[in-house]
Amino acid sequence: MQNLLFVISGLLFLILGGNWLLKAAVAISLRLNIPKIVVGMTVVSFATSAPELIVSVNAALDGFPDLALGNVVGSNIANLGLVLAITVILGPINVRKNFYTTNWPVMMLASLIFFAFIYFDGQLQQTEGIAMVVFLFLFLVYLLRYQKTAVVDEMPEDDVLLPHYKTLLFLGLGGVGLWGGSELLIDGAVGLATFYGVSDRVVAVTVVSVGTSIPELAASVIAVIKKEKAISLGNLIGSNIFNLLAVLGITAIITPITVMDQGLLSSDIFWMLGISFLILPLVFFPKGLRLGWRDGLVLLAFYLAFIYHTIS
Would you state the pLDDT for residue 99? Predict the structure, then answer.
């Protein structure tokens, strides 16, 4: 009963946190006159990736490396197969050239770098973690200096410029809400899963990864409802980049990570690469530079197949 209460309370905090964070993100975009997709890929992505960072660092330090790795790999699959799927089912997203010339390629490159670092020796060393964080820093510098609008803003006239104190307040409340909600949700979900005797890796790539992806879901769905699709798509692509380069990079710098369950290398990592690549053809087909409800159903089917394969 206590675990179930944790899950419900966590979801409530995550929804509130996602709403507050979105308000702050729009205000920052207006005040600094930078594209909203950049805000989505930096401020919002970092805040919604905070649960993954906290869980992965704690898990690695406590001697549960599969929980740290499975959490990130599973979250990246969930962000695209579950969160993006639900987002585009609720409403289509029109994308521009920068999405497939910058944002998607960087996400794929980050995925391939992680694959190259861990697949052959089953370890993520401190030097590799440093290299991942440096790559992220260079990407953020590029974003802030050169990135243009990559998604059409449907309702720019409804944007409200908040006072500085309100922006900071919403940013702080949003971050705390997402962090606290995720902690409650993870505690409850892991408690329920552990009760049924499921392995660390399976718990990580299913229950924990969905739990830590709830902030992305909350922020993205609220963004779509409020017609802030640039923040929604930028948040998801940015979160996947942050999860790999920042979460695993920082975790590896603190303590090297060694794969314990080989299922992560023989199965999960390939599912992550597959769904990351799948986004590109879906953007072009059946309608060019657009993600619609049919694409959402394809992504959702991919995710359900992954869950079925993992559990079975």
Answer: 78
Cα 302 to Cα 273: distance, rounded to the nearest angstrom: 12
Rounded distance between C-alpha atoms, residue 44 and residue 40, angstroms: 5
Q: What are phi and psi of 207, to 5 degrees?
A: -65, -55
Helix (H) or strand (E) holding 96: none
With vertex at residue 46, the alpha carbon angle to CA 276 and CA 155, rounded to the nearest 5 degrees, is 80
Tell me which amino acid residue 27 is. Answer: A
CB 249 within 8 A of CB 129: yes
Could you please report the per-residue DSSP string of 137-159? HHHHHHHHHH----B--S-GGG-
- Say if residue 92 is preceded by a cis peptide, omega within 30 of 0: no
Phi, psi for residue 91 in degrees, rounded to 5: -175, 140
Q: Which residue has the tokens 């559990």?
A: 311
Are 205 and 70 in contact by the 8 Å Cβ rule? The answer is yes
CA distance 151 to 35: 9
Q: What are phi and psi of 35, to 5 degrees?
A: -55, 140
pLDDT (tens digit per residue) in 118-151: 999 999 999 999 999 999 999 888 877 776 544 4
